[in-house]
Amino acid sequence: MKMPVIKRLVETQTLEALVAAEEALLEEQEPAFEVEGEDEGEKLTHVFAAIFILNHMQEHGSQFKDALREYTKKVRVSIS
């Protein structure tokens, strides 16, 4: 998971475009825009993180850094 890639997706893509990219990756297809990552799993992680962050920003009126912090908290909990 690379934070600069996630930030770039949040800044350049809409929620709808990210959801479409997630669906494309899950169907083993190429998304409509470039998603950086070493493999499909990393690309999917970047897209999923960007979706979570955009949703969090909209729902809570938060800034990117706060939404990113919430996402990383969830990741830490899920792997511990």
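(the above was protein one; protein two follows)
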Amino acid sequence: MRKSTRLAALAPAALLAASLLAACGASDAADEADAADAARPPSGSITVTDDTGTEITLDAPATRIACLTMICVDALTEVGITPVAYREALALDERYAGPDADMREITGGFGEENVEDIALATPDLVIGLAGAQDGLRAAVEAHAPLFLVEPRSWRDSVAFLRTVGELTGTEDAAEERASGFVERVEAAAENRSELTTLSMYGEPGSLGVDSVETPVGSLLAEVSDYPWPAGDDPFASVAVEQIAAVDPDVIFAQAFSPSVDTEPLGERLAADPIWAGLGAARAGRVVEVEAAVWATGRGTISLGLVLDAVEKNLSK
């Protein structure tokens, strides 16, 4: 009897302890659920990962985008959106946002842009170039999320256009433009030229080449013989002697200078006997192209203009 009485006396205490433990467990579970709900993006939000591996979440499609890089303006133009701010003067070209677009200019050096200009444009998203504007992230994200893009091929540019469609709620327009550009490149690739080409830029003594790991270089590799590997840098330095070793049939040249009256790069190199001996130079097949479009465009509009020039000169 003593034993039974003792067990009976202990039973209420055990039940109370069990109840308390259950209550604590339920409370902990509720706290965990609340924390999970708080961490979970709101319904209808958009989450993407940029080219630096950073996850970007928007509560709703972006409508006010500041562009620190021209591929941003290019993609927004494709989906019918005007940026609220721009950095590259090419944005004002009628083929992109246009001269009458209501946009704020972002001042400052490349990679050292004036964050105040960005803030005054009140964007809900900022798009920049990875490898150049990474250092702005902390300052920019005090005002808006920063998405950094780094296209290494024309296919990356197409993928970015689709991402912009997702970020801005214009998926249908982005898909239409992206698919149309892919079809154009694939059609051009079916008639791939056997001519050897080169896209180069700079000035005498400081020349560079668009390797196959750049949007322009990868595009030329689709439609022509383009033997320019990346090495350690997709935008590789090149000497005239290296160009002569390949002796390309057609050279697309971009002269870089702040002056609009820049002498064509081919003419600036004409005094070099090695350059003068190139087959393309002798045949008049050094084609001067728009440096801004070829060097900074990177998007599908710009690459379409590149393809226009390439197809025109490969068919001659």
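Reviewer note on protein two: The chain is about 45% helix and 15% strand.
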